[in-house]
């Protein structure tokens, strides 16, 4: 994994004014521990929040800054914080960090936790102060063993320095923070499934309402935020709303910076902190260096396996939620994947849908039965044994598993790349439909409701 802050045409050094998430990173990739973090202005924003700001003012500042969730959904963070109850009698409440980063082709949170663990802790500390939460959990993907070690050491350093625990910074405010490693399920990225798993239950999403802000962990008010989201909080508190809004490119409706990346057969795969509004072409050509010699860009995904495929002509889209929506899909996590011309789209989609089918919690019928159905059809087409009508059945599944038709967003995200792949590369799917032999009827296929 690499992280660079400039490309051949963009040699801009990381500074606190332009790269709030990454300017403290060491060139050798080693973690920034407490002494170095504090020498680089670490916990200054937390001290400001505790000494100079009322708790509601912290919430309002984050809301005014326009910070949105960085886990993929993009919900306004300040609005989410504002849903927490104002009733002071409800003094047991929780802050959860969603660090269950299992979206294929996404590793941005891993970098932050492994190399800047105190940035996440400071973000959670300020957030806990604002939300009046006395206990926090970092729900960490179980496979992130290095991140777990680094986070636990950083928590102990913060405790020893009086930045966690009882009477933090002499304020009378108490906040305990725990690192909880999950069992490795993609569905735990959904906040209520995460809550169920933390409680020791099966990781199924919960019915909403009630929302976690009202009834969350162990029935108490709970706020769940992504790693990168929480890591933005110290800079917003330290530098102010106007500064934060000034970071994005002209035309972007989203504010601040974003960890973006490109993987696949590109010359310089990596991860960079860039302003919202940068074009995908700039990300692909200037930072990722374009395709390796001998390969041609066939299509790309803008932000993880659950986003739709786009074509090379879509590279001029701006990288922010609305910019990517204009070309027909979602920005997702902002880590793009380049697909080269040697890849068969049917095989790629079969691989993706197998993952999503395996990771379904199985709670609702469309997802539990629909995703394995798509896998069976794709496997047949991949082998050249597809039957007439299979493509229409797949498109029917895309509609039947779309937004609002399943219990959570797992299935809609799973079928979005499938629908876009058929839209742009239908001949590759048609090539897998077996030619009917004279006098032999095609194999019977069930009819999709709504197809």
UniProtKB/TrEMBL annotation:
Query: Per its database record, what is this protein's job?
Result: NDH-1 shuttles electrons from NADH, via FMN and iron-sulfur (Fe-S) centers, to quinones in the respiratory chain.
- EC number(s) per entry: 7.1.1.-
Give the highest taxon in the source lineage. Bacteria
Task: Tell me what organism the protein belongs to.
Answer: Pseudomonas lundensis
What protein name is recorded for this chain?
A: NADH-quinone oxidoreductase subunit F
Subunit structure comment from the entry: Composed of 13 different subunits. Subunits NuoCD, E, F, and G constitute the peripheral sector of the complex.
Q: Which reaction does it catalyse?
A: a quinone + NADH + 5 H(+)(in) = a quinol + NAD(+) + 4 H(+)(out)
Q: What cofactor is this protein dependent on?
A: [4Fe-4S] cluster; FMN
Domain NADH-ubiquinone oxidoreductase 51kDa subunit iron-sulphur binding, residue spans: 346-391
Q: Which Pfam families is this protein grouped with?
A: Complex1_51K, NADH_4Fe-4S
Q: Does the keyword Mitochondrion apply?
A: no
The alphabetized UniProt keywords are:
4Fe-4S, Flavoprotein, FMN, Iron, Iron-sulfur, Metal-binding, NAD, Oxidoreductase, Quinone, Translocase
What are the protein's GO molecular function terms? Answer: 4 iron, 4 sulfur cluster binding; FMN binding; metal ion binding; NAD binding; NADH dehydrogenase (ubiquinone) activity; oxidoreductase activity; quinone binding
PROSITE patterns tied to this protein? COMPLEX1_51K_1, COMPLEX1_51K_2
Q: Which family does it belong to?
A: Belongs to the complex I 51 kDa subunit family.
């Amino acid at each position: 994994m690499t992280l660079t802050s400039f490309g051949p045409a963009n040699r801009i050094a990381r500074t606190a004014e332009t790269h709030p998430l990454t300017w403290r990173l060491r060139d050798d990739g080693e973690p920034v521990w407490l002494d170095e973090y504090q020498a680089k202005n670490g916990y200054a924003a937390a001290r400001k929040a505790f000494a100079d700001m009322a708790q509601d003012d912290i919430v309002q500042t984050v809301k005014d800054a326009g910070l949105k969730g960085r886990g993929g959904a993009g919900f306004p963070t300040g609005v989410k914080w504002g849903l927490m109850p104002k009733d002071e009698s409800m003094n047991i409440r929780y802050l959860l960090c969603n660090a269950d980063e299992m979206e294929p082709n996404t590793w941005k949170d891993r970098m932050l936790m492994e190399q800047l663990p105190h940035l996440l802790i400071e973000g959670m500390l300020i957030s806990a102060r604002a939300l009046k939460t006395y206990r926090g959990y970092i729900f960490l993907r179980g496979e992130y063993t290095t991140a777990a070690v680094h986070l636990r050491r950083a928590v102990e350093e913060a405790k020893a320095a009086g930045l966690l625990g009882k009477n933090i910074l002499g304020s009378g405010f108490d906040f305990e923070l725990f690192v909880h490693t999950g069992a490795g399920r993609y569905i735990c990225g959904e906040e209520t499934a995460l809550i169920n798993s933390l409680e020791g239950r099966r990781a199924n999403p919960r019915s909403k309402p009630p929302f976690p802000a009202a009834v969350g962990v162990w029935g108490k008010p709970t706020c769940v935020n992504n790693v990168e989201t929480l890591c933005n909080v110290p800079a917003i508190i330290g530098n102010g709303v106007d500064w934060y809004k000034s970071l994005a490119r002209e035309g972007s409706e989203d504010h601040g910076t974003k960890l973006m990346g490109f993987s696949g057969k590109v010359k310089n795969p990596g991860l960079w902190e860039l302003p919202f509004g940068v074009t995908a072409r700039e990300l692909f050509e200037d930072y990722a260096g374009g395709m390796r010699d001998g390969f041609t860009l066939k299509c790309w995904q803008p932000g993880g396996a659950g986003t739709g495929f786009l074509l090379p002509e879509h590279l001029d889209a701006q990288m922010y939620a609305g910019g990517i929506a204009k070309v027909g899909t979602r920005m997702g996590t902002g880590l793009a994947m380049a697909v080269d011309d040697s890849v068969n789209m049917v095989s790629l989609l079969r691989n993706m849908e197998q993952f999503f089918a395996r990771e379904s919690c199985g709670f609702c019928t469309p997802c539990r039965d629909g995703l394995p159905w798509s896998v069976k059809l794709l496997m047949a087409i991949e082998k050249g044994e597809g039957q007439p009508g299979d493509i229409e059945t797949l498109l029917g599944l895309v509609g039947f598993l779309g937004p609002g038709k399943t219990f959570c967003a797992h299935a809609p995200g799973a079928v979005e790349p499938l629908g876009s792949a058929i839209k742009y590369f239908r001949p590759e799917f048609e090539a897998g439909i077996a030619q009917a032999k004279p006098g032999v009827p095609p194999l019977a296929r069930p009819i999709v409701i709504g197809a």
